[in-house]
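Subgroup meeting minutes
Present: P.N., E.W., G.H.
Scribe: E.W.

1. P.N. recapped why we're keeping a running log of single-chain structure predictions: easier to compare across weeks, and new members can see raw inputs and outputs side by side.
2. G.H. added today's entry (692 aa).
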Amino acid sequence: MLYGAAYYHEYQPYERLEEDISLMKEMNLTVVRLGESTWYSWEPEDGVFKFHWMDRVIDAMHAAGIKVIFGTPTYAIPPWMAKKHPEIMAQWSSGTYVPYGHRQNMNHAHPAFRHYAERVIRELVSHYAPHPAIIGYQIDNETSSGQLHNPDVFQKFLWYLKDKYKTVDKLNEVWGLTYWSHRINEWDELWTPDGNSTPGYDLDWRRFQSTLVTDLLDWEAKIVREYARDDQFVTQCFVGAYSRPEGDMFQISKSLDVVAINPYHVTQAGLELDVEHNKLSGGPDWMTARQDHVGVSQIFLNGDWARSGKEDNFLITELNANSIGGSHTNFPGYEGQLRQSVYSFISKGANMVSYWHWHTLHYGFETYWGGVLGHSLEKGRIGNEFQQIATELIEHNDILTDLKPEANVAVLYHEDSKYALSYMPPLSKPGTTQPDRISYERIFDNFYRAFFNVSAQTAIVHPEQEFEKYPLLVVPALYAADDNLLNRLVAYAENGGHLLVTFRSGYSDEFARARWNVAPGILREAVGASYQEFSNLLEDLPVTGDGIDLPEDAAATAWADGLELESADALVTYVHLHFGRFPAIVSKQVGKGRVTYCGTLPNEALGRALASWTMEQANIAPIMEELPTSVRVVASRATSGERLLFFTNWSWTPQTLPSIPGGGRELFSDSQISENDALSIGAWDVKIVVQS
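Output recorded in log:
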């Protein structure tokens, strides 16, 4: 188990390498990330390379027993390159180059950029690969293309389309270009994406942009592996769940040895589970603008997301140590929240947790993105909590490393549906009639959170993976799916699985064309209901249940399919003069299994009830019945075969669990707990019960 931070000695205001390492040793830090952000320091002039400034850092880390993950510095180009080759700057709209002054502002598909990137990678990795301190490489950093519109990129897009569709006639058919007189006779008549209004075009454009990012990272990984030792890994740090818009995490993961993720999260009151829909989430606006997209469930979703890439253990390369964001969003976590976050990710299979970064910068764009040390460069409250965690991880390293989380509920993620629903979103932003471009993420979050709220043991899966092994499969908004995937879902239920599928699933084909049959199309017979109309909801609708226990505040939000029963049973129905004619949720036994269809976006109360009901129908028993509102539990298996129960209390109110089925040993106190003993969990606390 590795625990550490990104370290930038080159950013320090004065020479303090020896002092930093002494403090790292005192605090039990075991790993640092180095080198990915300062291409200029490596190559201050074209073809002039300098290593001595980093040699002494890595040598010092090795002498201190601190492991190093080395980063390729290709996400931020030096000014001399932009001056010498202005044509490599990105165009995020046709004909307009991005001015220099930020990061990830270049066309990474351009041959000139690739020339310089390959050269610097080869120089650095060949120099440092033999160093015993280096355990692995991070290629690039939070990679994105920013939707490149450069002429050479658009030409590559044409080649991509020619290879995929072969003829313009096929493209005209698939994209529906008869509409608005958009049919083309020759490939060179295709317009640039700036003026596009065709959903099929947008879907293929997004797919193509993601191939650029995948190609870049695969290319870098292959170069690194020419020099890397057999005991060194290659990784890439994704920004968090759903990744960058142009980054297909699952496809990129095929080029990696291990997945890494940077899952920043809200803090302070934003992590309180005592308060439903807390409006006081602490964090930058890009994180808190959507209150239904943040909170404790996002921490666990990110853990499942990271694990899903290779269905294996993963690394946390960046995480909140202190306040993150800008100078106006200062929300350091409450005492204990740092520790809760670490053990939550470990419970999902993290083998490393690292912060961005060791010391808070004294200059630059991220001056107020806090590190383990503040601007004073002295250990404070955050540093003390870091040291507590680090000490615990060293003491319990063997049992916490390489954990395999239990999972009996899988949630299917679909990249193409995310793309398609960002162009034609089904939902409006809450309280408005403006399109919600992250509708897919919102729907996915909603159903993930519903199962999180009943402490289901979850996994995220991708279509290429074997979702058939899970007894319950949740399929949110599978909008742009081909026939094969939809038929596979039906077969999953026929063979004994419980399929929970949501609105917008099966509605369009893989080209984002609305299917020309009664919805939900291929799923119709298995669902046992159909619909000819659907409506957005401007206010929540109360609902009633038949065969399912619903709390009084259960409600439908945002969307309503006008479901008509065919062979299914109505499980939940709207209470409304018009919508009351339609069931909101239906269910049907199919073969050896069951299909449940949810035609609305459930509020938290309805989501909890639906999650509990579907788990019961799938014969999935919760680890514990009736946990306190603020407590969650995750079960994982150690390499020893022991079962670990991670209990976290996300509130200021201490909680007591009256008993732990099967008893066990509490890891931190090393105290035995019988099956009838109570377990106390303090405010913002973690307890781990080890069972034989």
